[in-house]
């Protein structure tokens, strides 16, 4: 699965390694390694199939296909695809988890749409 | 000769197909099952406002949905998979291969004391390595609230040694779907001390507990209740 192409999408390729604080106001696709923290208020993070993220993540939406070690705070939704490996707590309004995804951590459904979680 | 050739070809066909199959793409068949223990627990989560639940089986979207829809908090931790970590393999004083329970508990089940209202163990004790069973039950006692409940399933001897290991999905107040776990990462140390990892089919039943063993295993808990099911499984509901 390739990275989605969009004008407002920043991409970190699979050979790229970043350590530090990442923040921005556009969607981010990570297929490389990121260690630190990621803050994308109002925007989405996608961890690609080769992505390895060791960071606490704050974003509007988070899609995980690769590995994510850290807590996730999503103001809208979180999607764990079947290849996802997540070690950390997830706090979101909606969550979708595919069969085969691995999660070690807490799932906390928050906000106005409490009770409308959508794990499939 | 023909049969030898056929067997030979069959071997190649079977080994070839095994390599070709992507385990993530094959969805094992789900079996339905009624659970009296779950039914008793369901009364608790249908009447209590916010519960904190720990699910120790394979990550189950159904279970996460089941609890979050009811406003409960759910923690997911796949202890059986965690127990295949190669770093845990060590030897005891007699030279037997064991798993390092201290390291295991340093990496897993790290929660404050009296944190959970419900722990779903499913069939974990039957498939977990011997050296981890008692330490894990001890840790579960400490992370359960007083009055908190734990559900576990134990095979009877009639189930046989090849009983498949299932993951459990809650689909109703006393209804489960069971899905065979296909993959297992096996670890062992070679003669040079190097750790070798291999993938094989499923987890193996480690032992069969009788009722006395089960009572002994949960002796620190306040009460224990047995439900004998038709499929050679005893459901056990214990209260901290």
**Helix segment tally of chain A:** 0
Radius of gyration of chain B equals: 20 Å
Low-confidence stretches of chain B: 1-25
| Average pLDDT metric of chain B | 83
Instruction: Measure the end-to-end span of chain A.
Output: 21 Å
Estimated radius of gyration of chain A? 13 Å
Helix content of chain B: 25-40%
* CATH C-level class of chain B: Alpha Beta
CATH topology of chain B: Rossmann fold
- Strand arrangement, major sheet of chain B: 3-2-6-7-13-12
Question: Which blocks of ≥5 consecutive residues of chain A have pLDDT under 50?
Answer: 113-118
Throw out a few tags for this protein:
heterodimer, A: 120 residues, mainly beta, six-stranded parallel β-barrel, 0% helix, B: 240 residues, alpha/beta, Rossmann fold, six-stranded mixed sheet, three-stranded antiparallel sheet, 8 helices, 13 strands, globular, disordered N terminus
């Amino acid at each position: 699965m390739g990275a989605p192409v969009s004008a407002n999408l920043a991409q970190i390729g699979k050979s790229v390694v970043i350590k530090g604080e990442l923040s921005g106001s556009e969607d981010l696709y990570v297929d490389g390694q990121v260690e630190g923290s990621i803050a994308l208020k109002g925007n989405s993070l996608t961890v690609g199939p080769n992505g390895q993220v060791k960071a606490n993540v704050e974003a509007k939406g988070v899609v995980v296909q690769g590995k994510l070690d850290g807590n996730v705070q999503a103001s809208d939704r979180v999607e764990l695809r079947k290849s996802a490996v997540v070690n950390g707590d997830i706090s979101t309004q909606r969550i979708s988890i595919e069969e085969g995804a691995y999660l070690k951590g807490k799932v906390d459904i928050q906000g106005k749409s409490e009770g409308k979680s959508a794990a499939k | 000769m023909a049969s030898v050739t056929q067997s030979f070809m069959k071997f190649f066909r079977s080994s070839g197909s095994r390599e070709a199959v992507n385990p993530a793409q094959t969805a094992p068949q789900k079996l339905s099952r009624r659970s009296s223990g779950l039914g008793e627990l369901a009364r608790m989560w249908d009447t209590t406002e916010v519960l904190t639940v720990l699910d120790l089986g394979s990550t189950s979207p159904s279970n996460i949905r089941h609890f979050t829809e009811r406003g409960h908090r759910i923690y997911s931790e796949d202890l059986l998979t965690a127990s295949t970590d190669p770093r845990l393999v060590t030897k005891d004083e007699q030279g037997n291969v064991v798993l390092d329970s201290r390291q295991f508990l340093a990496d897993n089940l790290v929660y404050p004391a009296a944190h959970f209202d419900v722990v779903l163990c499913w069939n974990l004790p039957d498939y977990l390595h011997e050296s981890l069973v008692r330490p894990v039950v001890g840790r579960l006692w400490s992370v359960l609230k007083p009055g908190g409940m734990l559900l576990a399933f134990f095979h009877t001897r009639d189930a046989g040694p090849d009983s498949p290991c299932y993951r459990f999905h809650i689909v109703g107040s006393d209804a489960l779907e069971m899905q065979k776990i296909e993959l297992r990462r096996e670890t062992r140390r070679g003669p040079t001390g190097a750790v070798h990892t291999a993938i094989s089919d499923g987890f193996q039943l480690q032992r069969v507990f009788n009722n006395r063993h089960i009572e002994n295993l949960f002796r620190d808990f306040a009460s224990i209740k047995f439900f004998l099911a038709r499929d050679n499984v005893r459901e056990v509901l214990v209260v901290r």
